[in-house]
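Q: What structure does this chain adopt?
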Amino acid sequence: MVRDGRSKVVRDHRAGTVRSVDAERPAVLSCQVAAAQRVGNLVVVVDRNGGQNDGLVADVSPQPRLAARFAAFGFDVAEADGHDVLALRALLACDRSDRDRPLAIIADTVKGKGLRPVEGKAPSHYVTIDAARAASWKRTVR
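A:
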């Protein structure tokens, strides 16, 4: 959600991203304001990768019924495979100029997808990638 210095909702911004763990923080308040103000051209992409810096979301701060929660805030909701670029592109390309409900796209992803040493592992938040490691990993990408 974008606001100007006077806390008015700025209506000409098209998309923003919210990490799944942020769905419990102040970003949610901004989303609620966007829905209340009927900012229908706003698209929020929630990266639901199941991880956060101190463990799995399910273990640290579970988020049951995330889609239903956004719908309750007044959003249209779409769920997608966050690794399917064509599906995401199609959702983002939809004309929302006549809508009065913002759209939340919940994109299910796997952190580090395709990179076996870090795929789906919480410690990948802090991995250091030097040149040698990067070169090695590039050879293993599936």
